[in-house]
Amino acid sequence: MSIKADIEPLIIEANEIANSIGHNVVFELQFAGSIKDEGFGGERTAVDELLKQRKEKPEVKVENHDSNQIYLWSPEKFKERLLMMKDMVA
To answer: What is 33-56 written as a DSSP string?
Structure first.
């Protein structure tokens, strides 16, 4: 199972829980990527090679609109926090 298929249903659940308890928080899956900043050229082959080197990692963006703060959590931390949220509403 892909990380997207694994995390997206949990993000929907987290958004529903936050909404049900009146917290103005939004959870969203995103992928952070980086490209090595060396030898970048405008030629198509150079760009293609840099894109192959790109490493993407999943993270959960948490926007707390009440406190105007944004957090970036690993999928593992998000799952831990979701369990805590579920315990709060149980």
So the answer is: EE---SS--SSHHHHHHHHHH-EE
What pLDDT does residue 40 have? 46
Domains of the chain: total: 1
Range of the domain at 31: 3-89
- pLDDT number for residue 23: 93
Q: Report how far residue 88's alpha carbon sits from residue 90's, in angstroms, rounded to the nearest whole number.
A: 6
Mean pLDDT of successive 10-residue stretches along the chain, which has 90 residues: 87 96 94 56 55 72 93 95 92
Return d(Cα 75, Cα 10) in angstroms, integer: 10
Indicate the DSSP class of residue 66. Answer: T
Separation of alpha carbons 58 and 30, rounded Å = 6
Q: Is 32 helix (H, G, I), strand (E, B) or coil?
A: strand
Report pTM: 0.73
29: nearest Cα among 5, 46, 51, 64? 5
